[in-house]
Amino acid sequence: MLIQTESKAQGWRAVAVFDDRPDALIFVGRSSTHVRQEYLDAYMELLDDEEREHVSSIQLQQWSGAPDAGRWVLKNTLKVPTPVKVRLAA
Questions:
Q1: For residue 31, what is the DSSP state?
Q2: How far is CA 75 from CA 13, 21, 26, 51, in A?
């Protein structure tokens, strides 16, 4: 008997690559489009200011292989969000 816990496999993810520590998972999604749409919000929510300063890149990766025997394959590099400085008019 096959038991599925998800309607569609979550085969894509965004991973933050740091210059001084291990990589960090940011977001997992159904498709590359889903990850591209959602990784920015997850990035801002999960990482604090100090961590964001050390992000060197964000990788878009896809699962390749069977669910229990595969690996993550780099498909693209996503844009690292830059902090927006708000200036208040005096």
A1: S
A2: 10, 22, 16, 24
Sheet of strand 55-66: strand arrangement: 24-29, 12-18, 55-66, 69-78
Q: What pLDDT digit, counting tens, does each position of 14-45 carry?
A: 999 999 999 999 999 999 999 999 999 999 99
Count the Cβ atoms, other than its own, within 10 Å of residue 77.
Answer: 11
- HEC string of 1-42 equals CCCCCCCCCCCEEEEEEECCCCCEEEEEECCHHHHHHHHHHH
SS3 66: strand
CA 67 to chain CA centroid, Å, is 19
Residues in the chain: 90
* pTM confidence score: 0.79
Residue ranges of domains in the chain: 12-76
